[in-house]
């Protein structure tokens, strides 16, 4: 529960900072923002459902230690989490791709745009196929947990869902690497300070890390097929499935926080200047206002006068 709370807190902190930037600094919201907000809300539902399964169901415990009611609750939770995961996974990657498309839209890199558009399409196709397999893995669908309540029905072969999960994970990992490596290759060619270039590359490198997590998760997925003690031995899969969306949300939000970082940097420099000025002469009562009159351009990092009431650039 502690690990899950940490993942959820990280996602909400990142999303809250993004929301602050959009309301207070850039004064604008775009489609990618809305998609990411929806992702965070669904991730919160996902986490709450998982907690319900841990506390009231049998997730993380041996099947032999559970009564039928606890097993039913746990399987309902697992089923719902698989469905939510498919949507969350697709929404997070869609938001990041839309953000990058908005950035690349200002240039002429048509190949990058096409790759990002193809990435969105591939992510949604794979997620919807995976969702269909998960929802209809049993006939009727509620036989997945209803078999412990005496319901009559049948399920598809045991290897179907694990294999579909592996395929979905591989496609998601490839998507993360496209999201991470494509901006890196473009940024490296831009004329900007090396320190700034490295900082931006690190931001997008988080997407590569998310892809690595998807690959690490794959060996644990096979437990879904062969485990006789399903609810206990699939805990590792559940943990990796909670970690990956959190990293995706954080990575997607960090990329939009440049205006906040620029404002903080300007504020820090202004305080240093005002302190130095105060020591050399008389106190400057309006020195703090400098932070509202200076803007750091995102592209170059240079300072320029900021007109009163003008929002900071989005990127």
Can I get a quick summary?
The chain is mainly alpha-helical. 71% of the residues lie in helices and 3% in strands. It has eleven helices and four strands.
Assembly classification: single chain
Strand content range = under 5%
Q: Quickly give the CATH architecture of the largest domain.
A: Up-down Bundle
- The tally of beta strands, per DSSP, is 4
Which residues sit in consecutive blocks of at least 5 with pLDDT less than 50?
282-312
Through-space gap between termini: 36 Å
Q: How many individual domains? A: 2
Helix content: over 70%
Mean pLDDT metric: 78
* CATH hierarchy class name of the largest domain: Mainly Alpha
Continuous helix count: 11
The helix/strand class is mainly alpha
Q: Give the overall silhouette.
A: elongated
| Element string (H = helix, E = strand) | HHHHEHEHHHHHHEE
Strand arrangement in the largest pleated sheet: 1-2
**Main sheet record:** 2 strands, antiparallel
Q: Within the CATH hierarchy, at the fold level, what is the topology of the largest domain?
A: Rhopdopsin 7-helix transmembrane proteins
CA-based gyration radius: 24 Å
Transmembrane segments: 6-23, 35-55, 83-104, 116-136, 166-188, 200-218, 238-261
Keywords: Membrane, Transmembrane, Transmembrane helix
InterPro entries: Rhodopsin_dom_fungi (IPR049326), SAT4-like (IPR052337)
Family: Belongs to the SAT4 family.
